[in-house]
Design brief:
211 residues; alpha/beta; two-stranded parallel sheet; 8 helices; 14% strand
Length: 211
Amino acid sequence: MGGSAEGKGAGAKASDYSVLRKVLRLIVDDIDEHSPQDVAYAYSGYAPLSIRVVQSVLLKRYLATLTRASAGVVQQAKVAEEGVGASLGVKAGFKPFEDALRNVKGPSVEIEQGNEGKEGKDRERAKAILKGSGTSAGKHKEKEKVTLVVFVGGVCHAEVAACRFVAGQLEKEGRARRIVVLTTSMISGDRMVGAAVQRQDSGNDNTNGKP
């Protein structure tokens, strides 16, 4: 099981968007909003970096093809994606996009969870609940694969829509998976503007010597 704080390393001060824009193709010009083919439709041509990270784990071949990667990278993506899908024990993580993701601020972490002890049992019980096998109805249906995507600090509605689009892509490929979004808050334009105005008012009060 892998996770990411998005990573160039703990010492990185800022994400290198000039590199990321090219290697992950964050800008897509040919967007058909009526019949979208990529998550970039959610922002009329801009693919959220957060969703490209999700695709680097779940849609490796698609992302490698979209970014016009070399034949070698496309093959690596194919092997990693098929290995995980077939439960062959392949530790795919962010392969073959690790080099690209090193340009993202913060450390990148991959954790393989075991099933030993109480923590392992609790984890299996939680997975069973998420997959619906904790109910009588769930026991009769095929186990549903679930991916939990966590946004710390907030997420906007367009990113949630993009996650739904990724789930749709997986379903079209015959690899249906439920994507569950967990976030600390929902971000909207009004909320962002309100926070900025609030900070400005607070700064003016301090300048005038008010508490």
